[in-house]
Every structure is written in structure tokens, then in C-alpha cells.
Amino acid sequence: MVNTGRVGILLPQPLLRGRRRPRVALVGHQRTGKSSLFVAASSALPQHRLLRHGDARDECVVDIGLEQISLVDLPAVGSLHAPGSRDLRLLEYLLWGDRQPAVAAHEDDLPAESFDAPDVLIQVVDATALQRDLELSLELCLLGKPLLIALNRVDEARRKGVYVNGRALSEQLGVPVWATVAHMGIGVTDLFAAALEAARVPALPPVRTPGPHLAAALEPLRSLLAQPAVAQSLRVPLPFLCVQLAANNEYFLQELASHLPQLLPQVLAARAAAARRLPRPLPDELHADRHHQAAILFESVSRFGGTAAAGRWQRLLDGVFLHPRWGLLGSTLVFALVLVVVFEISGTIDAWTAAPLVEWAQQWRPTSTPAVVGRAVVDGLIGLIAIVVPYMLPLVLLLVALEEAGIMHRVAFVVDRGFHRIGLHGGVAAPFLVGLGCNVPAISMVAATSSGKERLVATLLLAFVPCSARSAIILAMGGKYLGGFGVFAIFALTFVVLTVLGSLLARRYANVAAVGLIQEIPPYALPRWRPVLARTWERCSDIVTIVTPLLVLGSILLALLDHFGADEWINLALSPVTQWWLGLPALLGVPILFGVLRKELSLLMIHQALGTIEIVPPLDEVQIATFLVFITFYIPCVSTFALMLRTIGMRQAGFSIALSVATALSIAGAVRLLLEFWRLLCG
Predict the structure, then answer these.
(1) How far apart are CA 498 and CA 662, in angstroms?
(2) For residue 665, what pLDDT is reported?
(3) What is the structure's pLDDT at 158?
């Protein structure tokens, strides 16, 4: 690196991504948590591809920092010692991918599509049934590929009083071992980082020597198979091929007879000679030796009994936040607690800050054009204070503190599967929660933490998340005139719309590459206030640099329109929407338009347009419900749109406007028709 006086970042060389990204395959027995590990790292829409004989594999690209891997979830394997037809097909893929050697050229069921052989193998083992899985580990060590062990379900093993020393297992087996709890995301980040390093600097696992009597018996067969012609024809590592032929594997014996017939009699003779030197049949001796080695390994790295007092409260919290079923309840409680705390605090802060400023500004009634502009500037700044100080800052501050404590990472992991249904990752859970306060910092968080399809879909969906301004309108109007059920129905409708739109947008952008994201599960920690404050400012800084100028300029523009009497023309232009489609009075056109600047302005201007504080009887319940539904899904405020321009570009920001208008019109119109029909039935 050249010293230019600047602080530089050393990047790994070569950078493994794109065409250079390694292929990492997950292998293991059934019920080891292999698929849970894949789900913990995979994209929302992994590729599901058929292998031969009806088996399938899932594959996706996963980002690991600046680098990538292609992660493949292969079907469960039974045994490589005496492989059946399904295990044999899996073995072919592990050895050769779609590039079969010459011995397989005559087969009818060759791969139908391209599939590179994996560069790195990750065997997922069950810590509660370790000895069984260690036999497969010994078999995989013979394949001549870098191997890592994911020691999964260590939490269940601990509850059963079984403690596995991962470091000792790694030293004795000669491969990296990482403890994981796949369904909770624990240890997943370190595991895949190690897999990436194993691809960069390949290190083959050592081949464990069988017992002395068995090794001596197999030595003539091994020497015979060490001929270059065998390696060139079969392309199988010598230790593995020796074991397979000694175990009388029909597949390799038939291929040897077809392509190296002159060698077959010698192989059979060497095999028979080895069998005569042993007290039991050769396949039984091989199995017994492997079983014995696995048992010795298991006994040397495992301990039974005792208690696990250290870290008990952390495990109890993980049982709440990361449990496959109860974790969703724990996440919901966190969301509810955050909203209750923030909105309780927000009401107090608003009464101390924005409310006095609004009351003071209402006393200023300008008549000249310069005074109108001055009042508009003041209104814009007051509106900024009303959003940022009471709602945004407490919400972002509390969420950042929860991230520093390690809570939000666990919430994101638990809701990951739910977000997968709409083409997103659980990593957007925090931005969606921030969006309940204000969409602007939420979009900033998405831009900083995601990319590609996830960033695009999440940004478009965030425009439909009811921010504090929309929620205030729903609670103020709906709570007073529609009751608690009406308010609940509107928020429930929002959830349904977000789910449906998410699925549709995931299909629309199906051609955009979906990249997997590993949810890191850090240890619990007490938040440190200096990093918390720094990250809070980082996420709110766009308000000062982007939103403030646009909010003030928009306020000036709309104030001038009102000052020169353009409101009547606006109402007339919008009457086809307000009167004909929504069934609202035409004079509500201006309040709807002002909602582009700030949503709560719509509520304030309704009272001005109707000339009364009481909305009923000028509006009936159907009109109030229709207006609230429309304003909930209507164009996001100008601040949100401005940030969209910067993060997803003009084209997609314009599509967001069109989508929100179409959604608001269609859903509000449908709600109006349903309520009118219901009123006729009950009337």
C-alpha cells in the first residue's frame, strides 16, 4: 500500500466475489440443522434446482463483507461407505459437479445443467448425536476438499448435559470446528467467514490412517491404485478410491472393468489377499475401524454431566428472542415496548417544544407577500422540529441503544423468515420500526445496510409504513369518530397491503439478483452512550442536509399558492378524485395536496376548509374512513421522496409515486364501496 498520508484499508487479495466467488456446499445427515443453517444465510428467494433422480438443491449468493460465496444446500446424505443410489449421485456432485470424468460418459442421466463442484465443504453435525456424524466426517476427509465442521445444536447438547470441546475436536480431526445454533443464528457469521478463508487458502484435511493391521492389509491395493492411469480416468482421491474398492463398491468396480479392464483382475486379487489377512470380511473391518475411530474421537472431546451456570441469563434471553416459536412473541413485545415508550415520551416532548411554537406562529397572520414567505419559512422549520425532536430522535436513539445491547440483531434474525415471504431479509426489521416514527431515517438505514433487490423493495415498501404523522391523523380522526375498531382496522389493512405489495414487488424485481445476508448475533452488552449518540446522529443527519431545505421550499410554494387564491383552482382540478372517486367534498383537494409536504397538515387544513373544529356532521363515517385510508397510502411526504431520489434514483422514485397513488385510489375506492354497500344493507 502506498503511504499518501491517509488512513487506508487493506483489502484481501484476491477479492472473492462475482465470478471468483467460491462454491460452499452444506452436507450432513438428516435432522442436523443443515437447512436451518442455509436459511440463516440465504437470500429471500434462493434458486431451487433439480438434481438427478428427483433430488434438489438450493443455492444462493451470500455477501460476507466485501466478498461473496455461492452457498449450496445439498440433499441429506446417508453414508459414503456403502452409498445407495441417492448417496452415489450426491457423491458424484461433490467430486465432479457437472464435469463428469471419462468413466461416466456413457451414463444416460448426466447432469442437465451446469454445476461446478464445491470448493469448500461444510459438514453440519448434531452435537447431541456427535458420534454418528463423526463417522461421516472421517469419510468426507477422504474427498480431498477443504472441510469445516459446523458443530450445531450445542444448546440442546448442553441442556442434555453433553459438553463438546470444539477446540479439541478441531485439533484431533485436523479441520476447523465452529459451534453453532443454526436456528438462532449463533456462530453463523464466524463459520462462513472461516469458509471464505478456507477457499482463499485451501488446506486439505489430514487422512486418518486406519489401524495397523488394516493398513498393512490394504497397502498392496493402495499401491496398485496409485498408477497415473487410474487417477486420470477416475479423478477420485486415492485414499477414498482405495476404501471404496476395498468395500466392494459396485459403481467403481463396474467403471474400472469398463475402462481399465486390464487392471481389474489385479485389483480383485489384491482385495482378496487383504481379506484373507483379516479375521472378518473386509467391508466389516473397514466399518468397524471407522466406527472405532469415531468413538475414540467422541470420547476424547465430550464430557457428560455437570451444570452450565456461566452465561445462564444470556441463554435464557436467547431462549426468548431466538426461539423458532417464542422468538416472534419476544420480538413483538420489543416492538410494542419501543412504541409505547417512544410515544409516551414524544407526547411530553411535543408539548414542550413544537406545541408552543405552533401556538406562537398562529398569532402571526401575514398579509403581504414577503410576510407570507416569512411565515412559510417559520412553518417549515416548526414542522421539522415537530417531526424530529419529539418522534424521530427518541425512536432512533432507543433503537440504536437496542442494537448496541444486541437485542435488535436477535429481533432481525427471528423475523427473517417472515420477511423472506415478501422478498426481504430480517435485517430491514429495524428500518421498518424506525419508519413508524419517520420514513426518512428508515430509508437511510436501508440504504446503509442493504443493497440490490432488498434495498429497492424495502425502500418502496417503506413509503407505505404509517409514520408518526399518518398515525397521528388516524388516531386523532379515527379514534374520535370511528372508535377503536376503526383504528385497528386501518392499521390491519396497512399490514395486509404491505404483505401483498411486498410479494408483488418481489416478483416484479425477480430478475434483480437477491443476495443472501448473514444475520450476525453479537453477545449481549450494555450500550455505551458515545457510540449510541454518534450512530443516532449518523442516521438523522440527512434531515439537516436534505430534508430541511426541501421542507422550507415546499412550505413557501404552497403558502404562495394559497396567498394568491390558487386553492379554488386546485380544488377544481382535483374534484374528479375527491368528489367522484372518493365521495369527499371538493374543498378537501387542497388539504390532500398539502399532505405531500407534511401529512399532519392535511388534518389541520381539513378544519380550516370545513370552517369548523368538529368534522361531523360535514363528513359522515364513510367519508372519514375513506379519507383516512387514502391519506395512509397516498404519496409519501416530499422529504421521503427527496431521499428516495438519492438512494434508488429518479426512475424508481417516480415508480414509487405512481404505485402509492394507484394503491391509495384503488384501496380507498374499494373501502368506500364496501362501506356504502354495508350501510345500504344495514340502513
Answers:
(1) 14
(2) 93
(3) 83
Whole-angstrom distance between the N-terminal and C-terminal Cα of the chain? Answer: 80
The SS3 of residue 131 is helix
Q: What φ, ψ does residue 15 adopt, rounded to 5°? A: -80, 120
484 exposure class (CB count in 10 Å sphere: 0-12, 13-18, 19+) = exposed
What grid cell was written down for 76?
441429506
44-49 contacts at long range (C-beta below 8 A, 24 or more positions apart): 44/419, 44/420, 44/422, 44/423, 44/424, 44/425, 44/453, 44/454, 44/506, 44/514, 45/420, 45/423, 45/506, 45/510, 45/514, 46/73, 46/514, 46/516, 49/113, 49/115
E strand or H helix that includes residue 347: helix 326-352
Distance CA 35, CA 12 (A): 30
- Mapped onto helix, strand or coil, the DSSP state of residue 554 is helix
Contact at 8 Å (CB) between 297 and 134? yes
Q: What is the Cα–Cα distance from 496 to 601, expressed in whole angstroms? A: 26
Residue with cell 433503537: 399
Q: What is the DSSP letter of 579?
A: I
pLDDT at 9: 57
Residue pointed to by grid coordinates 424506525: 434
Residue 142: the pLDDT is 92
Task: State how far the Cα of 624 lies from the Cα of 505, in Å rounded to an integer.
Answer: 30
Whose cell is 411535543? That residue is: 350
Residue 674's nearest CA partner among 614, 644, 629 is 629
Per DSSP, the three-state class of 565 is: coil
Contact 172/301 with Cβ under 8 angstroms?
yes
**Nearest Cα to Cα of residue 444 among 538, 509, 532, 513:** 538
Sorted by sequence, the CB contacts under 8 Å of residue 321 that are 6+ apart come out as 327, 330, 331, 334, 407, 410, 411, 414
Q: If residue 622 lies in a helix (H) or strand (E), which one and from where to where? A: helix 621-633
Query: How do residues 636-648 score in pLDDT, each as one tens digit?
Result: 777 788 888 888 8
How many Å is the Cα radius of gyration of the chain? 33
Indicate the Cα dihedral angle 557, 560, 566, 571, nearest 10°. Answer: 50
Residues 58, 44: Cα–Cα separation, whole Å = 12
Q: What is the pLDDT of residue 171?
A: 92
Residues of the chain with pLDDT under 50: 1-7, 102-103, 310
Using a CB cutoff of 8 Å and minimum separation of 24, what contacts does 305-310 make?
305/161, 306/161, 306/163, 308/158, 308/163
Please tell me the distance from the alpha carbon of residue 40 to that of residue 191, in angstroms, as a whole number.
Answer: 12
φ and ψ at 325, to 5 degrees? -105, -50
Report yes or no: 395 and 303 within 8 Å, Cβ to Cβ: no
Cis peptide before 22 (omega within 30 of 0): no
Compute φ and ψ for 49, nearest 5 degrees. Answer: -125, 145
